[in-house]
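One chain given next:
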Amino acid sequence: MISCFLLPRQYRFLASASITGAWRLPTRPTSRTTSTSTTRQCFRWALPRCQNQIKSKKRKPSSTPVKAELPQLVFFHCKLNAVSFCRSFISLLGLFALSECRSLGTQSQPNVVLVLTDDQGYGDVRSHGNKLIDTPIHDRIAAEGVRFDRFFVSPVCAPTRASLLTGRYHIRTGVHGVTRGHEIMRADEVTIAELLKGAGYATGAFGKWHNGSQYPHHPNGQGFDEFLGFCAGHWNNYFDTSLDRNGTMVKSDGFIIDTLTDAAIEFIELNHKRPFFCYIPYNTPHTPWQVPERYWRKYQAKGIDDPAIACAYAMCENIDDNMGRVLAKLEELKIADDTIFIYLSDNGPNTDRYNAGMKGRKGSAHEGGGRVPFFVRYPRRISPGKVIKPIAAHIDLLPTLMEYCGVRNYKTKPLDGRSLVPLIESKPSAWPSRTLFTVWGATRLQDGRRAVRTDRWRAVNEKRGWELYDMLNDPLQKQNLAQAKPDVLARFSAAYGEWFSDAASAGFNPIPIHVGHPARHEVVLEGHYAYLHPTQGKRADAKLHGISYHGRSGWANDWVDNWASTKAHPYWHLNIVRSGDYQVVLKYACAEADTGSLLRVEVGGESLEVEVDNPFLPVTIHSPDRIARKEAQERSWGSLHAGTVRLAKGKTQLRVRALEIPGAEALELKAVHLIRQH
């Protein structure tokens, strides 16, 4: 017996292992207390949990520097033979040395903080010429690092996120839309988080995911140890809402951006003695138009005519304050110089507001739909105040970060992006001319909004034929040169055709939702993931087809309603990855006069019939909107237990049919829950 073994605090989890030559990590702790004294003793992936509520706390960064914390030592007893002891002791000394080297600021792997905002345009930053908005932290990051003048993303959110995380054009990854499952990224794509995690980084994501809700498409299945946020395209309420904490819904307190920042800061505090990747995809200024009162009052007082623009600017300033909190924490921990801090947005602005005079906004293939702010601050390697003119894009982040983080010989699917390090570090000879491609809303070559961009030219087709602009001499796209330069345009349209055929070669078949994955015992088939039969797109078509989505075209958080025909039904594509018994629960609403409908759930060759014999009148949850919303309101839902089915492994579909509809409609269907039985 060898006793009184000394270890630094961060390795005390090894005390639970009976050392026999191989280390075994204990299971994650079940405690979810938010006590600071407790969370400081958690494992590096055990971000402070919440059993019922996430408290927004410590929102103002301290001005008092924190003293360097000496490693706390613990004693434990191990049973091991002499050889195992020597090996283990040497290994632990190595881990201890690496930890202490990092605390002295000599680590070779920088931290990464990646801030992605939602619908914040190029013009929503003061240093880009907008005198109505105050963004001192944005401006500071740009001034203290490098600013890319012509940086491009996709015209909408989910495609940008997929490209940013994988270094590949989004249609290669399976993402070709923003809802109904078109936003799901294939599970075998390799993300920045997976690569950095494999290189020893702690990984956390705090905000809007929008590349799949169910495991393994969920952030926890794509390389992130920690996740707090939501996976849908937007969220209904930004105050006192519910958020996804590693697959479990928990209540939050306060404004959502403040809460997400709290969680990101906690993650940084817990992991600052090792390299970490902290991804913060804020969900504003995307609608609904909700923002804390003090920001709203400030921009109302500026006399801005359009309240949506005033609210957007207010939301952007709130983002700025929260970015400042993150930066202050890095400085307090004395790791700011060794942290790559990146800021960008996911597409152009979501209203017609100042955008530096560019043509187009969110959803457009023109310059204003995809040119966004992109700032990189990394004092250890990047000189301040540099502006980079050559074009770059979201697909470049993965190879850039791998180079800066010293991750070599990494394996991914073929990349479309290239490392920006030669541009950043002034090695222009290593930077060739390039062509960037844009597509939105297309599953066929001739469809959708599409563009080709070089340093000089932009060729655009927004369903009205190809246009051509000289972006060096006509950056605001005033003169269409399609007739004057037919050869140039023909070259670009042909290049787009070749690119699309290659990038879309994997096809656009629906990506099935995994059911029965060991990491998740319950799967939620949300209404906006449903396909409708007969196929229809908009609520106005419901009278023709006997079924529709509530709200607009099946956007996030919508549900199935206007279900008046027994010939109509919703269905979901599934992949049963583990055979077994599954309980089926429908989340529904039904008026008293519409009770009595008989439903049949069909899945994997099995079926269940259930009658809607009890009404459920939904209660609309208060939403503090500054401006009337276009999105569906958040509501309460009843539970209808249909029974249990035995499912075999394999791909299938789940259909909910209405066999009898005695009232005006069968019911309103929010979701179907499949719960694996043990």
Observations:
- Residues 513-676 form a domain with the Jelly Rolls fold (CATH 2.60.120.260).
